[in-house]
Design a protein that fits this description.
By secondary structure, this protein is mostly helical. The protein contains 38 helices and four strands.
């Protein structure tokens, strides 16, 4: 058997067993103690044991359980953080360094006037296709050079790690990283050197790159323990370090490069130098050997045998005479043993590593992809990538360990490796499916607001390496323990895996660069080709040039852009416009007016009458049993459903929602610019306080959800900063118009009042349904119509919740359409405002466009209702501790949120179009979609933050109401909620009430801006003629508006 590691000195009698062919077996027992206990076996090896039981156990199992010193993994995590953060600080500025050189060379040849006196070129001018293609090729060549050297030297450096130690190879690994960063700085800032010379920097990866670094670090982590859950947790922590880097690195790089472009690489070199002493703290092999108790204090003298062994001496002499080639042959025999032990399983696992590495090569293009496709600066793209890292980090540090612990029942995973294998395979498949659909969503994201949720969904698949790497230690993949050379097999196994992953990256880097260059040449949605491979060149957008949008500052006036012209603008009065007053119907004349989408209006009225009927019957049953349900907060005896306590709570929620919403609108009117800052800060602070309180109350699932929201809010707020000037201008314009025409806020106040009444009606009905139809000892069952059952309660609650969504959406959209008529009158007729504009727009909304508004609201209501059901189910699964169900509903909720955003985005402009032109909903939606695609309105929408700001304000009010509901049921502790079963429902309904009321209160602000955008898209000449000051201000804060409205 192999020699065992050193044992701790203990006050036990030393037993030396010697077997000899001549003298047989005899026992020696010296008088001294506290020394290692050697045993000379038949093979002549010397083993140190504590007693006979340990020897017998080692004989049976070959190796004992591995237990690393406490905290041994932390130096490893610190090393990973330092190295990966340094590399992240280098990657983002590298894009800009190369782009700057290419941009200067391009404009030096084509347009020298674009180069400023200091030799710089505006970054926005560097998004030319020729420049971006050159950037893709340079970065692809650097990536390939780095990977080739790393791939070739992985096995040789693995051999050297065995001879000279893993720490020496890790120190050596820092050398090419420092050189590559320093060389990129030299070439980037030294004009005398050709740009092609930058490719020489990664050549030193032959001294070790990512493959060597990862194989050693993962082998060290795997050797710390042989416990499945602990090992998977270590791998999760190591993977999460990379996402901490993705969170901090891009943002830190973006911040520092905005100060000085050379500052991030300089910080990267400093971090690599700090990694040198960190390597000294790493656990060494003799600290994590196969002994029952581990001691780091054994020196070479203590590990020597107490008695000389002739056989051992002979082996040492033979080893000294062996050649280097013999050592290499021994290593290759170890590799062959690994590959031959379980060929089918290992090949399948290696194939998964190859394919995922090949696919993940596209993530390195994300910064350039965002910058080019969505016209973002690299610094802004860095902030966006940080949001993705938040999800990655929380998934790997909190969710995955919780999932693994929840599946570890009665020690099954520890004692049965086949069970842990099945768990790993199942979760790996889930992560793989999520990654595939996430990549598809990224490829299809036409706007930055579609890309954002797609990135977050894609991030949910980042746990795949945790489960696939854990399978490497499985008995069905790794060699049997009695066949292992324990000091090298593990390192070689991880070396093979890292080589396969490097091979995937080696093939993926040039492939993705080729697809990216081709996508740039094709333009439009084809730029998503690296994320969604397409065969052949995709069709061009109608009327679009092969190379996308015209360059900034070069609007294509007078060129046809449509298959058919847009509908005629409303009654035009460019020029002075001080003529005879007209009314709204004359100014916005509809040819042959009719009741559009009448069937949807009739269906809406039917649902409303059904809601009223259910409410009346339920309230009658509630009133008849009021004594049983209580008349205050604490006096209800009802324990089978909601009671008066809940109604009082909802009244408090209504008051908070109304007051907060009114104050929010008042703040927007008084301080338009500061309003945006206050919104972002309040959301972050309030979300953080709520998360901390939830965690303090040990409601971990809700706390984690709020923490995720806070992380996303922080990212969103940072990304807002460059767009605040344009957004403040549009908000100030909308507020100025609303102050001039008082009917705007009268409509807002009436709408808010109706929304409050509707929410109160729904809240009381919600409780009354519980009281009237809950089964059990319920005297209300005998009152009025219907019987009591859980099915009846569920069905009626589903109906009234859906009805409430539809009615509230209809109310909000009716207000939006009415306000759009007012702002449309101002846009087209600023000097001759039609008489009764508010009254005329409201009349059209309630007559000819009533069915159209009902139809559009129905679509939104269905999606929102499904989201609400998903949210309730998600909270219920979190309360029950079902992590898998929670994750499934979380993913479904993300998909529904994307659909909800898309529908509401289209509806906002479709209803403004309906207000001005009186078209049916489907026809208006088609024309609006064509306008969005062809007229560049999406650029204005992406630049303007008012929609997200108002949404965040509504979420803030929803947060406040949800927290109030949670605190209320916690402190009053009503009889029906002693087990906490109704808490998720109460929180969800409270959030819904606050959200909908605030949305209705803020509708006039968003409606005005949406109408201005629609008017600018259909008739930009009206903006320049009727509102020249506004147009000049828009161009000043956002010059691309010239391109956007003339696209």
């Amino acid at each position: 058997m192999p020699a065992a590691g050193p044992a701790d000195a203990k006050p036990l009698a030393l037993v030396v067993i010697i077997r000899s062919p001549q003298y047989g077996t005899y026992r020696m027992q010296p008088s001294y103690q506290h020394q290692p206990h050697p045993v000379i076996m038949d093979e002549g090896y010397i083993a140190s044991i504590d007693d006979g039981e340990e020897a017998a156990r080692m004989s049976r199992h070959g190796h004992s359980r591995l237990r690393a010193p406490k905290g041994a993994v932390w130096p490893l995590l610190v090393l990973l953080l330092a190295v990966q953060l340094a590399w992240s600080l280098y990657q983002l500025p590298l894009n800009r360094v190369v782009e700057r050189r290419l941009c200067r060379e391009y404009y030096g040849t084509h347009d020298p006037t674009a180069i400023s006196p200091d030799g710089s070129v505006d970054e926005e001018l560097c998004k030319k296709d020729e420049i971006q293609q050159g950037l893709a090729w340079v970065l692809g060549a650097m990536e390939t050079a780095w990977i080739v050297g790393d791939f070739v030297m992985t096995i040789p450096l693995g051999f050297m790690a065995e001879k000279y130690g893993q720490k020496a190879i890790l120190w050596l690994n820092l050398t090419p990283r420092v050189f590559t960063i320093a060389w990129a700085l030299i070439v980037g800032f030294c004009e005398d050197l050709p740009l092609a010379a930058i490719v020489a920097g990664p050549i030193l990866s032959m001294l070790g790159g990512d493959c060597v670094f990862n194989s050693i670090t993962y082998a060290l982590a795997a050797s710390l323990t042989d416990d499945y859950v602990t090992r998977a947790t270590y791998f999760g922590w190591m993977s999460s370090v990379s996402y901490v880097v993705n969170l901090l690195g891009p943002g830190l790089a973006a911040l520092t490069m905005s100060i000085k472009l050379w500052l991030p690489p300089f910080l990267a070199i400093c971090l690599l130098l700090l990694a040198i002493p960190t390597i000294l703290l790493l656990p060494s092999n003799n600290m994590i050997g196969n002994s029952t108790s581990i001691s780091a204090d054994h020196n070479d003298e203590q590990r020597r045998p107490l008695m000389p062994s002739p056989i051992l001496k002979a082996q040492q002499a033979q080893k000294a005479q062996s050649s280097v080639w013999g050592s290499i042959r021994h290593r290759f025999r170890t590799l062959r043993l690994i590959l031959a032990s379980h060929p089918r399983n290992l090949i399948l696992l290696l194939a998964s590593f190859l394919l995922t590495a090949l696919a993940s090569s596209d993530t390195k293009l994300l910064a350039q992809y965002i910058s080019k496709r969505y016209h973002w600066k690299f610094a802004s793209a860095g902030y966006l990538l940080s949001a993705k890292a938040v999800v990655n980090f929380l998934l790997l540090t909190l969710v995955i360990p919780k999932v693994l612990q929840s599946t570890q029942t009665t020690g099954a995973l520890r004692s049965q490796p086949e069970v842990s294998d099945r768990v790993n395979v199942r979760y790996a498949r889930i992560c793989l499916a999520v990654s595939v659909f996430g990549a598809l969503a990224i490829a299809l994201a036409g706007t930055i607001w579609l890309l954002f949720p797609s990135l977050l969904f894609y991030a949910l698949g980042s746990a795949l390496p945790v489960f696939t790497l854990s399978l490497l230690k499985s008995p069905s993949v790794s060699p049997k323990q009695e066949d292992q050379a324990h000091d090298s097999t593990e390192t070689h196994l991880f070396s093979i895996v890292m080589m396969v992953k490097t091979l995937g990256s080696l093939l993926g880097a040039p492939l993705m660069a080729f697809l990216w260059v081709r996508g740039i040449a094709a333009g439009g949605s084809a730029m998503g080709t690296p994320y969604f491979p397409q065969h052949g060149q995709p069709p061009q957008a109608y009327g679009q040039s092969p190379y996308g949008q015209p360059p900034y500052g070069q609007p294509q006036y007078g060129q046809p852009q449509y298959g058919q012209p847009p509908p005629p603008p409303p009654y035009q009065d460019y020029g002075n416009g001080y003529g005879e007053k007209t009314d709204f119907d004359q100014a916005f004349r509809v040819e042959g007016p009719k009741w559009n989408d009448l069937w949807a209006g009739i269906l809406f009225l039917t649902v409303f009458l059904g809601f009223a009927a259910v409410s009346g019957i339920s309230l009658h049953g509630y009133a008849a049993t009021r004594n049983y349900n209580g008349g205050g907060i604490y006096d209800g005896a009802q324990s089978v459903g909601l009671n008066t306590n809940t109604i009082i709570m909802f009244m408090f929620v209504l008051c908070v929602a109304t007051v907060f919403s009114y104050c929010y609108v008042l703040l927007a009117r008084t301080f338009p610019k500061q309003f945006i800052w206050v919104t972002g800060i309040l959301n972050i602070v309030f979300g953080l306080v709520t998360a901390i309180y939830m965690l303090y109350q040990k409601s971990y699932a809700a706390g984690i959800i709020f923490l995720i929201f806070v992380g996303l809010l922080i990212f969103a707020f940072i990304s807002w900063i460059p767009r605040i000037p344009f957004s403040a201008l549009m908000l100030r314009t909308a507020v100025d118009v609303s102050k001039s025409y008082g009917h705007v806020y009268m409509v807002s106040a009436l709408g808010g009042l109706l929304a409050t009444v509707l929410a109160a009606w729904y809240s009381i009905t919600f409780v009354a349904v519980y009281v009237k139809y809950s089964p059990g000892a319920n005297p209300a069952c005998s009152q009025g119509a219907g019987g009591c059952s859980s099915g009846t309660v569920t069905g009626l609650l589903v109906f009234i919740t859906f009805a409430m969504y539809w009615i509230s959406e209809w109310l909000k959209n009716t207000i939006h359409t009415t306000i759009s008529g007012v702002y449309g009158s101002w846009y087209f007729h600023p000097h001759n405002l039609p008489q009764g504009a508010t009254r005329g727009a409201l009349k059209r909304s309630l007559t000819y466009s009533f069915g159209s508004i009902s139809l559009g609201s129905l679509i939104v209501a269905i999606v929102n209702f499904l989201r609400q059901l998903c949210s309730v189910a998600q909270r219920s699964e979190a309360t029950d501790g079902n992590i898998l169900g929670y994750i499934a509903f979380l993913i479904l909720g993300c998909l529904l949120a994307i659909l909800d955003w898309a529908v509401e985005f289209l509806n906002r402009y479709a209803f403004s179009y309906i207000a001005l032109y009186g078209k049916p909903y489907i026809e208006a939606a088609k024309d609006t979609w064509k306008m969005i695609k062809d007229r560049g309105i999406d650029a204005l929408v992406n630049e303007c933050l008012i929609g997200p700001v108002l949404s965040f304000g509504a979420i803030f009010v929803g947060y406040a109401c949800a927290l109030l509901g949670y605190l209320y049921v916690t402190f009053t502790n009503p009889a029906y909620n002693r087990g906490g079963d109704y808490t998720p429902v109460i929180i969800a309904i409270s959030f819904l009430i606050g959200l909908q009321i605030c949305n209705i209160f803020t509708t006039p602000l968003s409606s005005g801006i949406d109408t201005i955008f629609v008017g600018a898209a259909w008739d930009p000449q009206a903006l320049m003629t009727n509102h020249p000051d506004l147009y000049r201000a828009m161009v000043e804060v956002y010059p691309q508006v010239q391109v956007a409205i003339h696209a």
